[in-house]
Amino acid sequence: MLTTEQLRSVETLVAEAAAAELMPRFLAVEARHKADGSLITEADLQMQERLFAELAARWPQFRQLGEEMPAAEQQSLLRQQQQGLWILDPLDGTANFASGIPFFGVSVALIGAGEVQAGVVYDPVRKESFSALRGQGAWLNGEPLQLEADRRPLREAMGMVDLKRLPAALIRQFAEAAPYRSQRSFGSVALDWCWLAANRVQVYLHGGQKLWDYAAGSLILREAGGSGGLFEDYAGTPVSELVLEPRIGLAATSPALFEQWDGWLRTAMQGQ
Predict the structure, then answer these.
(1) pLDDT above 90: percentage of residues in the chain
(2) Which domain covers residue 99, as residue numbers?
(3) Domain containing 84 — which CATH number?
(4) Of 103, 171, 231, 272, which alpha carbon lies 20 to 30 A from 82's?
């Protein structure tokens, strides 16, 4: 659906929009709560409006679904995605952004034929642009991202684990007998996937992320050679289609490490 050159154009417009709409508002922002309790800022809305306009100007044939849209409209658009649909999270990590924590990003994915075809995740603080095209690879600032076969045992891995949405019994397991070397959680799902793709962390678990959170980032990880993805439950039932309902993100930087990670989680859940 996109060429490599067109993907680079998306990266450029996202970076320019973030520089104009996000960074001037960082550390000088007022936030309010949405109906679901999450935060929204003027930056979210202005960034979405700008990206909608610029993507429509370049690719009028593709429709657009953004996080800051009514749920009924999102559902209607998703049912019509066969010919191409942009999925936007204009500011992933709004709570960080509103709190002055420099870890947030912009996520743009193009889906079609029931699959994510292209993705861009941009970190405007570090000026890191992660991107991928289905079947063609993943890149960081234009340089290929390729995970080598990781033979480290799980106990030596760095874990990226968001405890907020996990079952209480599983949280206790992590507190009492974590299987990895150390754990982090930074507050931006889109960047979580990309940091896996860059091998900054090696195993990942998030208990409830939505389509605009994971669409671009999960493709970037897969194209870099990572393993895992989206699941319906902790028994490892994979998600077979793109939906709006929250999904469990479970991944690792290699198939061998994913097998260890998935096995530990299954055992931990069965023991409760």
Answers:
(1) 75
(2) 4-145
(3) 3.30.540.10
(4) 231
Return the structure tokens found at 48. Answer: 């979405």
Could you tell me if residue 141 is left (phi over 0), alpha (psi between -120 and 50 degrees) or otherwise beta?
left
Q: Which tens digits make up the pLDDT trace of 212-223?
A: 999 999 999 999
The two beta strands, 63-66 and 39-41, are unpaired
Residue 51 confidence (pLDDT): 96
The secondary structure of 184-220, three-state, reads: ECCCCHHHHHHHHHCCCCCEEEEEEECHHHHHHHHHH
The pLDDT score that the predictor gives to residue 30 is 64
Q: How many C-beta neighbours within 10 Å does residue 245 have?
A: 9
Residues 6+ positions from 24 with CB-CB distance below 8 Å: none
The structure tokens listed for 222 are 């897969």
- The residue count for the chain: 272
Q: Are residues 76 and 203 in the same domain?
A: no
Do 175 and 124 lie in one domain? The reply is: no
Handedness of CA 2, 141, 242, 227 (dihedral sign): positive
Tell me, yes or no, whether 141 and 252 share the same domain.
no
Mean pLDDT over 33-62 rounds to 84
- The residue among 122, 145, 168 that closes a domain is 145
Q: Tokens for 180?
A: 């990895």
Confidence at residue 160, expressed as pLDDT on a 0 to 100 scale:
97
Same domain, 132 and 38: yes
Domain tally for the chain? 2
Question: In 3D, which of 131, 134, 109, 111 has the Cα closest to residue 122?
Answer: 131
3-state helix, strand, coil in the chain (%, to 5): 40, 30, 35
Tell me the CATH number at 222: 3.40.190.80
Q: Kindly state whether residues 212 and 113 are assigned to the same domain.
A: no
